[in-house]
Design goal:
Length: about 400
Amino acid sequence: MTKLSIERLSLGGKRVFLRADLNVPLEHGAVSDDTRLTAVLPTIQLALGAGASVVLASHLGRPNGTPSPQYSLKPVADRLESLLGRPVPLAPDCVGPEVEKAARQLKPGEVLLLENLRFHPEEEANDDGFAQALGSLADVYVDDAFAAAHRAHASIAAITRHLQPAAAGLLMQRELDALGRVLTAPARPLIAILGGAKVSDKVKLVDHLLERVEGLVIGGGMAFTFLMSLGHDVGRSLLEKDHLDTARRAVETARRRGVQIVLPVDTVVADGPDAPSGRAVSVREIPRTQMGLDIGPRTRERFAEAIRGAGTIVWNGPMGVFERPPFADGTMAVARAVADARAFSVVGGGDTVAAVNAARVAERIGYISTAGGAFLEFLEGRALPGVEALTDAD
């Protein structure tokens, strides 16, 4: 999937409408984690260095189409000023005469941050008139918000009907290159690691991956639905009884295609996530009154062995309730195993990225995606509106 890159645009004297994902956490009126801001800096700096001005746009939170001070991008503007070392004024809105005037007055090397796009219900409705108003603010369109690319919103999809060319920013291009490498030209064997709470969240992903991978490693809460589908009693562990048939079909499909499914053989059990400690038991011996909250030590070794021989690894979802220290060891062990592998590795999803950072192995991961939902939908093989809307490369 080759899309026009910002690197191929002639930007001197142009105004660039840059759709970014600046949806960052705030605490006490300030940005508490600027990872997504630093991720878009190279694209901003490239545009400014080429002699362009930048009209920067993003959503923040879910204000439900109504202006709200708690969802204002003012803290983001303040943090971007510090990161860029230049003024980043915040427009009073994202459309309207005052905003249009401010955009027209931008000089090369200047940045204007629009106020929260989702203060207008037309943004999430992909409204054409709203998209046209946004498009009138600039000369070219650049999308660097892969994390929002699965949304058919006005600033992501409809705007490209009014503002061309529509190019991928540097971050968007890196995401497409890394995920495209996993799906279209992976070094073999390709091993997928899936965790998290629910099978239902990843049914389509499992189906799609089973057509492409040599191995599927399954941990987290979703593993217990698979284990019960194979006849194990899982006690009070997280379970989706209405997806037992889904798990059975996946196991049968894997067997038919020669794909190895690697499931836990032991688990750390306790009365609940707030318990001060847990103990490891075989998955055949889970007490009826307790729940599995992490993979056990034998499973960690089993998973590490599967990961060790990979040529390409893709990982989404923790192995247990890793935010609680007694149940973090499994996820940390998988993070270290992925980092130690010689494979090209791609990690995505907020919890998974947090785990990689907590294990202090981020610098040894091949690519860390900034996306959650878009990451999963891309791996499911779905067409993402924000990607489809971009101009194809020659």
